[in-house]
Design brief:
The chain is mainly β. The protein contains three helices and 13 strands; from the N terminus they run E-H-E-E-H-E-E-E-E-H-E-E-E-E-E-E.
């Protein structure tokens, strides 16, 4: 589990004008939905980007240090709004958590290596699940769940029950759900030539994209 400190200041509720001014100053307006109270704040966009760019940053524990707030809080990102054109961070919702109680969240899968069935037999990696639902204490949240696929052969399927995690992390998905498989590439359809027309050249097989799989780091 990783923890990050987010500094900032409390702000008053207002119209869109003040929020736009904050963004021009390099700050992002936000709200912490607390355990008993909600607080509005602004924080430096650079600090938020640093947290988000870290591996597993979207579910790091964030310790708030806001000027004007009576206490520090442990929180996680609930919602992040981004401008559709400029990709500028426009608003942040944080959810205060109790570090002594378990959480349920989605954790990204990280596929490591090149499957034998792909490398040696021309198979295609097909991904069914990119994240898993897990339950664990805040201090045990993994940045990602690493899955080695090096020994997977053509025709093999990896199921949820095949994935090993730390004993402190409980996977909530159906144990028999497929995660990835190595499949035979499908052949492109060949059009029927009109009567008397010369035969077309053979069409090579197409290879599906292994979208969702990540290279080894």
């Amino acid at each position: 589990m990783s923890e990050d400190v987010l500094s900032g200041s409390l702000r008053q509720a207002g119209r869109k004008g003040p929020a736009r001014q904050l963004r021009r100053e390099g700050l992002v307006p936000g709200v912490v939905y607390g355990q008993g109270d909600n607080v509005m704040f602004s924080a430096p966009a650079k600090e938020l980007l640093k947290i988000l760019k870290a591996k597993g940053g979207s579910h790091h524990i964030i310790r708030t240090k806001f000027t004007g707030d009576k206490r520090e809080r442990a929180a996680m990102i609930k919602k992040l709004d981004v401008h559709p054109i400029t990709d500028e961070l426009t608003h942040l919702d944080l959810m205060e958590i109790d570090i002594n109680k378990p959480l349920r969240l989605k954790v990204e899968l990280e596929f490591v290596g090149t499957a034998r069935g792909v490398k040696e037999k021309g198979g295609v990696l097909k991904v069914y699940l990119k994240k898993l639902d897990v339950e664990c204490m805040p201090s045990d949240i993994p940045d990602a769940i690493t899955v080695s696929i090096t020994n997977m052969d053509l025709g093999e399927v990896l199921h949820v029950k095949d994935i090993k995690t730390d004993a402190k992390v409980k996977i909530l998905n159906d144990a028999d759900a497929a995660v990835i498989s190595i499949v035979v590439p499908s052949a492109a359809p060949v059009e029927t030539a009109p009567t008397g027309a010369p035969e077309p050249a053979a069409t090579p097989a197409t290879v599906e994209s292994a979208k969702g799989a990540k290279p080894a780091k």
